Amino acid sequence: GQNIDQPTEMTATEGAIVQINCTYQTSGFNGLFWYQQHAGEAPTFLSYNVLDGLEEKGRFSSFLSRSKGYSYLLLKELQMKDSASYLCAVRVNSGTYKYIFGTGTRLKVLA
Amino acid sequence: KAGVTQTPRYLIKTRGQQVTLSCSPISGHRSVSWYQQTPGQGLQFLFEYFSETQRNKGNFPGRFSGRQFSNSRSEMNVSTLELGDSALYLCASSSSGGAGETQYFGPGTRLLVL
Predict the structure, then answer these.
(1) Cβ-contact B82, B113 below 8 angstroms
(2) In this complex, do A43 and B90 lie within 8 Å of one another by their Cβ atoms?
């Protein structure tokens, strides 16, 4: 079956660095996405990895290891506004493309 | 460009009723996907439409259906509502749903079934 695991909740302090892990078991892997979702709002796209390695975008970086079925999202210089849920999603190709989402990691940033 | 829009934003229904939700994709986007989001299950894929055809389907009962119009707007319908259908329903659009593309989400419709 297709499965994605990520921690349910994490807490970090303003200004710190936090790493949110995501492991997946899927067939037909075609890319891994990270989305941010504030309470009551739509998920917004953060990053996309399809090849192994690190993608950096300002304070956010995402890493992928396809052989290990593993990704992480790294958030640096945490701000209060980073308190949100972070969703890991894998796109799979089974003839057409479909997205499988993890249940999300709720991050609380404390002052 | 305007983002993905969904109407209505909030809805309260009772068991046994039916409901229709609407999604307008980003202009030029032809792929529209629907998801159900609940606290325990996360985002669950319902179906995807492209060029007025259902191209992909998740594991939901036949009470959940959808359609897409020639202008790429999409609707989903849930018949014979159950309490467990209470959720946030999100739609997402992309250009063609192909490799290398990103989905963009609408704000969602929050459905409460009493």
Answers:
(1) yes
(2) yes
Give CA–CA dist B92/B35, Å, rounded.
Answer: 8
Of B4, B42, B55, the CB nearest to A96: B55
Calculate the alpha carbon distances from A50 to A40, A64, B12, B73 in Å.
29, 8, 40, 29
Q: How far is A69 from chain B (nearest CA, A)?
A: 19
Q: Which two tokens stand for residue A9?
A: 């909740």
String of b and e for B31-64 (b: at least 16 CB within 10 Å)?
Answer: bbbbbbbeeeebbbbbbbbbeeeebbebebeeeb
The number of angstroms, rounded, from the C-alpha of B113 to the middle of its chain's C-alpha atoms is 17
Report d(CA B102, CA B95) in Å as an integer: 8
| A31-88 tens-digit pLDDT | 999 999 998 888 999 999 999 999 998 999 999 999 999 999 999 999 999 999 999 9
Give the single-character DSSP code of B9.
Answer: S
Token pair listed for A91: 């796109």
Q: Tokens 């003839």 identify what position? A: A95
- pLDDT tens digits along A74-111: 999 999 999 999 999 999 888 878 889 999 999 999 99
CB atoms inside a 10 Å sphere around CB A94:
12
